[in-house]
């Protein structure tokens, strides 16, 4: 067995207990005499699994009534386009707050479908902060306001949900969902690609308020309509059954850990350990304003670029995987999602200390 601490930004490490259970059930799942991947999504066994997963997620996030929970496909990226298609008319404005690469992409995908307004942006400071709420230029008549509560590439996170000024708030929570409690009632819609804190890629979880669903136009293809997916219980066509199954196991695992409040405590401790060391080192550097630092994705640079290659090579030899930063930022990035234990972050800090001592 040579599994190592995996700091990949996504697809990311999954809880080992979940992988073991999936392994044990791979050939025959729960009395079905077949793998969960080999049975009908419309059979009663799979329906029960699907309902349990939804129920567990609702419980974990305390989803209020009046919201649909959907298990969809297409990656978060497809939903960048599907959101304006469903919730805005072409001539209507939609507000985006740009805090990094993912919110930028979301706004770009919306452009052909609605009048995109940039309500605020921290591009001028290289996405190192959340633009202060008082400086946002919101349109009261916008169809919605879109934010990215955690920017996976730059490691910038909203630690408070901003006041949307009465406009429906939509959040791409791909890289923060389940890492801490989340007040769903403040949002009209949340969506997340699964491959960080939920399960394998290829699954998207969306939580959508009923009044927003009523806006979905009748004249768009059904497969792109959130209202149709909701009406069909996310089974308009064959869903990603394997992803749904694994998501269900992850939800049970999070519950067994004590839920999102317990995850938050653990994630806070992990983040404090790593940022604390980076700041104290005077050698490594994280460029993000302290109040906006992500608990999930921690980018950092070394004092000289020529140290990057040896750092990556030696960290891998030390059993610390996938620390290379995103090409847009350079340097390193440690993604420390729910499945990363505190011991993994401690092992990273120990390695960083040793590397700095040898190369300082
Ligand atoms: N939004 C965020 C915040 C992300 O981190 C990612 C992927 N890393 C995406 C959207 C795009 O997700 P996908 O590749 O599933 O389309």
Automatic annotation (TrEMBL):
Superkingdom of origin organism: Bacteria
Compartment list: Cytoplasm
Pfam families in the record: Aminotran_5
Pathway named in the protein's UniProt entry: Amino-acid biosynthesis; L-serine biosynthesis; L-serine from 3-phospho-D-glycerate: step 2/3; Cofactor biosynthesis; pyridoxine 5'-phosphate biosynthesis; pyridoxine 5'-phosphate from D-erythrose 4-phosphate: step 3/5
UniProt remark on cofactor binding: Binds 1 pyridoxal phosphate per subunit.
Top-tier EC class: transferase
Reactions catalysed: 4-(phosphooxy)-L-threonine + 2-oxoglutarate = (R)-3-hydroxy-2-oxo-4-phosphooxybutanoate + L-glutamate; O-phospho-L-serine + 2-oxoglutarate = 3-phosphooxypyruvate + L-glutamate
Binding site for pyridoxal 5'-phosphate: 76-77, 102, 152, 172, 195, 237-238
Occurrences of domain Aminotransferase class V (ranges): 5-348
Modified residues (N6-(pyridoxal phosphate)lysine): 196
Complex and partners: Homodimer.
Protein name: Phosphoserine aminotransferase
Organism: Dokdonella ginsengisoli
Gene from which the chain derives: serC
